[in-house]
Amino acid sequence: MHIGLQHYLAVSMLLFCLGLLGVILRRNLLVIYMSLELMLNAANLALVSFSRFNNKLDGQVLVFFIITVAAAEVAVGLALIVALYRKRQSAHVEDLTSMKL
Amino acid sequence: MEAINNLISGGGVEDVLFNVFAALTLLCGVLVIANPFSRSPVTSAMFLVLTIISMSGLFVLLHAFFLAAVQILVYAGAVMVLFLFVIMLLDLKEEARRNIKFFWLIGGLVSVGSIFAIFIKSLTHNYFEEFASSSKLPSPKLEGDTVALGKLLFTQYTLPFEIVSVLLLVAMVGVILLSKKKLE
Amino acid sequence: MNMSLIGLEISVIGLGLVLMLADLFMPAERRKFVGYAGIAALGAMLLFSFADVGTCSIAGTAFNGSFINDGISLFFKRFFILAAILVLFIAAEFSDRFAVGSVAEYYSLVVFALAGMLFAASANDFVMLFVSIELITITFYVLVSFQRSKLASLEAGVKYLILGALSSSFMIFGIALIWGTTGELNFTKLAAVAPQFETSKIFLLGVLLVLVGLGFKIAAFPFQIWAPDVYQGAPTPTTAFLAIGSKAAGFVLLLRFLFTAVPSVTMHWGKLLIILSGITILYGNLCALPQRNIKRLLGYSSIAHAGYLLLGVAALNAAGQTAILYYLAGYLFTVLAAFLVIALVLRHLDTDDISGLAGLGQRSPLLAATMTISMVSLAGIPPLAGFFGKFLLLKSVVEAAQATGNQGYYCLVFTALAGVVMSLYYYFGVVRMIYWSKEPSDMSPIALSPAAKLTAWICIMGIFWLGLFPNSVLVLAGEAAKALGK
Amino acid sequence: MKNEILPWLILFLPLFSAAAITLFTLRRKTVSSLISISAVVTGFVLTCLFLSANTFHPTVTETTVNWLTIGNLSIDFGLKLDALSLMMMLIVTGVGGAIHIYSYGYMHDDRSMARFFACMSLFTFSMLGIVLANNFVMMFIFWELVGVSSYLLIGFWFEKPSAGDAAKKAFITNRLGDFGFLLGILMVWSLLGSLNFGALNSIVTANSAALGCGATLAGLLIFCGAMGKSAQFPLHVWLPDAMEGPTPVSALIHAATMVAAGVYMLCRTFFLFEHSPEALHVIAYIGGFTALLAALMAIQQNDIKRIIAYSTLSQLGYMVMAVGLSGPTTAMFHLTTHAFFKALLFLSAGSVIIGMHHEQNIWQMGNLRKKMPLTFLTFFIGALALCGVPPFSGFYSKDAILALALEEKNYLLFGVALFVAALTTFYTFRLFFVVFFGQEKSKEASHAHESPLVITLPLVALAVLSVVGGFIGVTNFYGSQFGAKHASLTVMEQFTHPFHDVFPMACGIGAVVVGLFLAFKFYKNAATDPLPAKLGALARWMANRFYFDELYEATVIRFHDLLAQSSDWFDRWIIEGACIGLIRGGTDLSGRALRLVQTGNLQTYAFLFVFGVALLLYFVLVK
């Protein structure tokens, strides 16, 4: 058996779904956020492997942008979580239900 | 003996390395979201760092050298350190083992499982097999090194590059606004 | 490559920087004027985009086809600038609720979000799509949680952040799959090769995942769940901008993606779009029925309106696209009118309960009239803008039904009309509260600044103009829709 | 030139007046009312001028301005001037003008009189728009405007919660009908490709199968609109409640505007219905049923305005039935005469209400003919016209409907119409006797006084019209459009024409006589002997003398009571409660259930999001 694109993609998809599970099942906002990073990384892996097998570099450029944007997003997101923690003394999703119905 | 021969002759090293890195990536990924031994965010963060590092190994296998470096420098080096800082700052305790609602667990597993099934099913779809078998690993004409990426980035993708700079500015302003200790 | 095509975007970003810096040199109590200066500059840009002398209105592409200026992008750019102007007016009225040191930042963030929307209007490849949508979204994370002394604002911010990042992940994975199978990032080039991938499941998977991301932006079923909470918690000017700017940006990208990038796939998805549109309409209207919180109510109603707008997408014809543009134009004035009133009346109250509007008929006849006209237009009663937009959308669906013989379209028309009837109940509940409520607690007259009066009048005029003389905007919208091809 | 301008002027005058009042003179009652009154009256004068300029021979003309073009559909803002619209304009401006003048007296002490007149002007404008519209879109727009302005007027006294509820009810019930109307319009447009009445007419005439099998459905959907506005069963529930508005508003809604709009629309688009006998059948039976139901309900009412309101419902049933029997001329004829005498009745009732210091219960009145002689006289004329006593106007139009039913060989509806005619006379004169005869039953009744001139003058004018409305050539006018058989008769021939069809006329008069007799028997007595105790003392004597009466009491009247009560019950619980309530409650409940999804918990949201993605992928990729 030769390692081909499919194998890389399978890994990427598995990773993506792992991230998804983390988002759904974990309650700590920070861990949820890490799971989201996992999902983004899965997309990066898919792009890089496609880039290799398509013989085009555009995918890698896109990965570069994704990493940059993710960094910005993480910065804002963590600031937000910190601000919330200061206000509410909690980083658990169950404690954030003042608005509903 | 035969195995070693295979390994030396037919690109087998890459295959082995792929298996190793892929397994590492996935294993650490699992440990990020569900660690049987610790539910502390710090453990999750550390395993995420490991995931990222092993993934950069995969990047190297795919000849994306620049991104492999960026992955380690930016992701593992900067982003994850940020995470760890925040975790320390907030002094987060271990996530209490609240009793998991069975309904959510099953529902979540089923829906994510079905998404995964659809993913894999589309991977093995007829078109794709053809595509994958016809294009065996091509010899890399384009190496994902700094020069090649830089050229593309500053010709074809100048505009998004500039927009991302605005985005970073916004993020900076946003972070300051959200975390400034005192706003009179 | 004609760099002057992005003149408008460059000036908007420049304006954002200037506003941010202006904060340093202005005494705290005069920062309201930073907003007015921003409004004036944006107004100048709006006029400039209509004048023939400007090059920003020239059609063409730049940056190897990744940036495109055509009818639809120009239409949406004007739309976004107008929306930003009105939002800045609302923000200026609302600014006393922000921490003093951060008012100018708020204005500049609004302007940066506007820049993101302008880029979105011109995006012609996936990189631009991703980057511009992220610029908008990340700016909105900050804008939503801007009142960080209020828990609701932060909570809304976190909800928007997590779900937004989730949808981004789906979208980026979809982009990866599309690019991987076709090898094209550019929409125009993709359209040429897409037909041969129509049977590839992995390609279709990619298209669907991109739709997930865009569906989140426009709050369409099943990705509508965030809207009410975020609308409720966010500061009112942000909610207004979210309701109109962010949603319209989602729609322009959706239109581009569906009709320029993958038209051959879209043409098979009439049924899917019909179902999504119908459920979105019903969900929004049904949930709004028992709602007492006015901002939340508008959140649900915005879901319903996303459903109405999807009618035009589901019709899969030029008439539908024209109708979307027209409807959005009407929606702009209508929604901003409503949020203007909410911002002015409820800013000193702790709750957003509908009862806060009680006695408005006596407290401020102008605001009462503005809110009433807005509600009546949202309910789709002639001769206001809302009616005409709905009429156009329904008409395009009926046309589609005739052209394709798909009975589902008739069901969709029925659903939409049923939704309209339901919506009367809660829209007129608001009107009733304004004029016919028993013993309002506070009967003090509301003093209005000249700027607030001006904004109210602009909105009223816009609603009436679009309802009574639809031809002018319709021609623009028709021209714009031509740019999409099919 | 003059001809081009005049209709536009007539249409927009009330709008200008509404705008002027809202913008400038909201604080000045007298000026506002004068502006509003003069706008309508000028409209009336201009309409007359326009007619005389055309030598009273309306030819179909249209003046249009292109309003917008969408694809291949071009929608005009156009006015259609033919016999139908011109006559209707006369009614709207003429009767409306009388009501406006009357309102000046009636509303004089109300502090929001200016707002009242602004709304009245808006209402008139909307109605004129419906009348003059030359295409469906424009008609629909004005149709909705009528809805909105009626909402404003019915809820005019918004301090009363019941007024607010009534306004909302009227609006939502109407919208329910409009829902069907809009669907119908879209359907007609999708089948025929045009929305202009003239163009549609020529398409349908050229190819009667153009509508194909959709004719019935389209017709019925359009009829839904009329059902809402003209308050036909089962959407009639709003009309009696609409009495919460001031009396002139009731008069305007019931006589000249709103409810007439539905019938007018049916006649305007009659060319569509001609090709669908099934739709016409449904319309006829719904009309007949409404007429019967409303008449039965009227018998049990005690509020003076409500009795007249139910009579409107019943008369509207007649009109709709006439349309359903393919007689648009007859329907419009009855609409015209009804406009005269119903406005007269309402305004007279208003005069009584003023005289009684806003007491509306008829059992508190009595013997008012001495106190309010002029009102008594005009009410009497209105009542006679309503019942169809020759030679009052109602007689001619009702007779025409009876003849039409017979001609169409629809004996069931003929019977219903006859029965309703008898009932009409019965409840009208019940009201009449109780209010104007007998003894004063309250202090207010003994202190009642005649109303001022500004109120009685419109009464007199309307009374004259109610008398002569039947034979001044109304049918001629409409006949020129629809080609009725009585077209081009002289006034004298008109005066005597019913005598050509002796049988229906005799039946009609017979029904009136029976109704009158019964009313006289019961309520002449009830007025003099209202107390049951006294009745008990005279019981044996009564039993001997009025043996038949008791029989009636035991059978007919009991049956009536039962029927009236049960139909009231049916109305309240089955129609409003079960049908409308069930739909509303069901919607409400599902709304409440659905929003339970919005738990506010981010985790749930994320789960639902992912679940949504899974569904979407499954739906597209697997299924």
Give your account of this protein's structure.
The complex is a heterotetramer of chains A (101), B (184), C (486) and D (623). Chain A has a single domain, classed as Orthogonal Bundle (Helix Hairpins). Helices cover 77% and strands 0% of the residues of chain A. With 101 residues, chain A is mainly α. The radius of gyration of chain A is 17 Å and the shape is elongated. Chain B folds into 3 domains: 98 residues, Up-down Bundle (Four Helix Bundle (Hemerythrin (Met), subunit A)), CATH 1.20.120.1200; 43 residues; 40 residues. With 486 residues, chain C is an all-alpha fold. Chain C has a domain of 218 residues. A two-stranded antiparallel ribbon of chain C has the order 1-2. Chains in contact: A-B, A-C, A-D, B-C, B-D, C-D. At the A-D interface, helix 1 of A face helix 28 of D.
CA distance, first residue to last residue of chain C: 26 Å
Number of helices of chain C: 20
Summed over residues and divided by their number, the pLDDT of chain B gives a mean of 81
Q: What is the gyration radius of chain B calculated from CA atoms?
A: 22 Å
The chain-level mean pLDDT of chain C equals 88
Question: How many domains would you count in the coordinates of chain B?
Answer: 3
| Form type of chain B | globular
Helix- and strand-based class of chain B? mainly alpha
> Which geometry of chain C do the CA atoms define?
globular
Oligomerization status of the protein chains: heterotetramer
Question: Could you please say which CATH topology of the largest domain in chain B applies here?
Answer: Four Helix Bundle (Hemerythrin (Met), subunit A)
Major β-sheet profile of chain C: 2 strands, antiparallel
* CATH architecture identity of the largest domain in chain B: Up-down Bundle
Fraction of residues in helix of chain B: over 70%
Number of strands of chain C: 2
Proportion of residues in helical segments of chain C? over 70%
Computed Rg of chain C: 21 Å
Determine the most extensive contact between two protein chains.
A-B, 70 and 86 residues
- CATH class group of the largest domain in chain B: Mainly Alpha
Tell me the name of the CATH homologous superfamily of the largest domain in chain B. Answer: NADH-ubiquinone/plastoquinone oxidoreductase chain 6, subunit NuoJ
Descriptive labels:
heterotetramer, B: 184 residues, mainly alpha, Four Helix Bundle (Hemerythrin (Met), subunit A), D: 623 residues, 76% helix
Ordered list of secondary-structure elements with their pairings:
The complex is a heterotetramer of chains A (101), B (184), C (486) and D (623).
Chain A: H1 5-25, H2 29-54, H3 58-88
Helix pairs in contact in A: 1-2, 2-3
Chain B: H1 2-9, H2 12-33, H3 41-61, H4 65-90, H5 102-123, H6 126-134, H7 146-155, H8 158-179
Helix pairs in contact in B: 1-2, 2-3, 3-4
Chain C: H1 7-25, H2 32-50, E1 60-62, E2 67-69, H3 71-94, H4 103-122, H5 126-144, H6 151-182, H7 187-193, H8 201-218, H9 227-233, H10 236-261, H11 263-266, H12 270-288, H13 294-314, H14 318-346, H15 360-363, H16 365-379, H17 385-404, H18 408-435, H19 450-468, H20 470-482
Antiparallel strand pairs in C: 1-2
Helix pairs in contact in C: 1-2, 1-4, 2-3, 2-4, 3-4, 3-10, 3-14, 3-20, 4-5, 4-10, 5-6, 5-10, 6-8, 6-9, 7-10, 8-10, 9-10, 9-13, 10-13, 10-14, 12-13, 12-18, 13-14, 13-17, 13-18, 14-16, 14-17, 14-19, 14-20, 16-18, 16-19, 17-18, 17-19, 19-20
